[in-house]
């Protein structure tokens, strides 16, 4: 079966020449189709003739009727199967967006109607709880049996739908992905760059996936350095992460676990460790590890202090505690209420940059290790400098040390 065609939706804020530049940019990055929706753009807002010179167009009727000029310029025409399938047969994408999760039987009844033999079929519904993943996969399988491979697309939507969409994409005709930034066309979309990275990887045909679980992880480098397919699973802090990893057990070799789920998943996996950052599939269950100890060791070695304060008491601090004794380094883990006088000496800042530090926090020429990297690391460093400290950028050292061990562990997955 051919790989799914990557579809990027034109953001509603882009019109005219800006829309054309957007199309050129996503084409360069690996998009195959540009979608234009009537609920996001008026006919006069976009130049469909200019856009179709850049990418094939998929025009979608959402509320307002499709302009005839859009239909003529398009390669694909999306019409709701419950409203009308009036479109050229060779262009038709017959779609339905369910308002609630459906059983496979309910979904199949929706599609129990004649369609042109060349029409594509797109079925979309809210994922609901992660435990519904097998039902959505069964719906996809049954629709492919009915309509044929290469014609069917099944999508789940919702705050924890991304990994399910990634699994569905392997048999879908179309893969709706987000270009990046602050806007996406639907909750649960993968990033275009991540989908392209998987498609180009030599190991992309493996049955089991890998991924990183966290909140606000758009900056993560894990998808760039680990073997593909590797998914960036960014879910809300209060999301059902325990139920999600259990639902994904048949499809994933393992996960990198980052803030804020290190403590919760340690408890869920019945780990003897206080916090974990790695799950590895062992048949019908997950085995847990904390390779952050390798990162903590690298940071304390580079910091070179016999005594250090630690700001934050989450999963990273648990790893620092494990290795500090072996390295003859005495740690002072400071609770927020204990921070009074300006801090001196050496320290480690473990708070994610989305966690505001206490207003009274000040440093007196302290050297403070930053274990975040990229834009979050730079924001933390700026905050340290503003409060009188000297940031020591050690996020890359921590990341590389722990990631190397994670890779070794995932290769042992069964």
TrEMBL record:
Biological process according to GO: chorismate biosynthetic process; shikimate metabolic process
List residues traversing the bilayer. none
Q: Which GO terms describe its molecular function?
A: shikimate 3-dehydrogenase (NADP+) activity
- List the protein's name: Shikimate 5-dehydrogenase I alpha
The species is Hyalangium minutum
């Amino acid at each position: 079966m051919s790989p799914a065609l990557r579809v990027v939706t034109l953001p509603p804020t882009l019109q005219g020449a800006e829309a054309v530049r957007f199309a050129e940019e996503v084409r360069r990055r690996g998009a195959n189709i540009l979608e234009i929706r009537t609920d996001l753009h008026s006919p006069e807002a976009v130049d469909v003739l200019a856009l179709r010179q850049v990418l094939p167009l998929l025009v979608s009727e959402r509320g307002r009727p499709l302009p005839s000029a859009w239909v003529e310029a398009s390669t694909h025409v999306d019409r709701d199967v419950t409203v009308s399938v009036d479109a050229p047969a060779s262009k038709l994408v017959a779609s339905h967006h369910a308002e609630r999760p459906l059983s496979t039987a309910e979904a199949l009844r929706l599609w129990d109607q004649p369609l042109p033999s060349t029409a594509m079929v797109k079925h979309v519904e809210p994922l609901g709880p992660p435990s519904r993943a097998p039902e959505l996969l069964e719906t996809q399988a049954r629709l492919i049996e009915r309509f044929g491979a290469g014609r069917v697309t099944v999508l789940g939507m919702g705050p924890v739908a991304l990994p399910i969409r990634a699994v569905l994409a392997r048999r879908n005709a179309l893969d709706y992905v987000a270009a990046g930034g602050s806007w996406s066309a639907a909750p649960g979309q993968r990033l275009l760059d991540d989908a392209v990275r998987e498609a180009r990887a030599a190991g992309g045909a493996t049955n089991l996936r890998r991924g990183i679980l966290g909140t606000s992880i758009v900056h993560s480098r894990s998808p760039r350095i680990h073997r593909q397919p590797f998914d960036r699973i960014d879910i809300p802090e209060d999301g059902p992460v325990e139920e999600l990893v259990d639902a994904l057990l048949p499809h994933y070799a393992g996960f990198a676990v980052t803030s804020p789920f290190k403590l919760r998943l340690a408890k869920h996996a019945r780990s003897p460790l206080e916090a974990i950052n790695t799950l590895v599939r062992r048949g019908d269950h997950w085995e847990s590890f904390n390779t952050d100890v390798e990162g903590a060791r690298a940071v304390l070695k580079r910091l070179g202090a016999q005594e250090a304060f630690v700001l934050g008491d989450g999963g990273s601090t648990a790893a620092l505690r494990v290795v500090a004794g072996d390295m003859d380094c005495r740690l002072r883990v400071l609770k927020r209420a204990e921070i009074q006088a300006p801090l001196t000496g050496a320290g480690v800042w473990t708070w994610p940059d989305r966690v505001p530090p206490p207003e009274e926090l000040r440093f007196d020429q302290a050297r403070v290790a930053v274990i975040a990297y990229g834009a979050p690391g730079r924001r933390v460093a700026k905050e340290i400098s503003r409060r009188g400290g000297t940031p020591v950028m050690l996020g890359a050292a921590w990341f590389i040390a722990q990631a190397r061990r994670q890779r070794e562990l995932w290769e042992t997955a069964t």
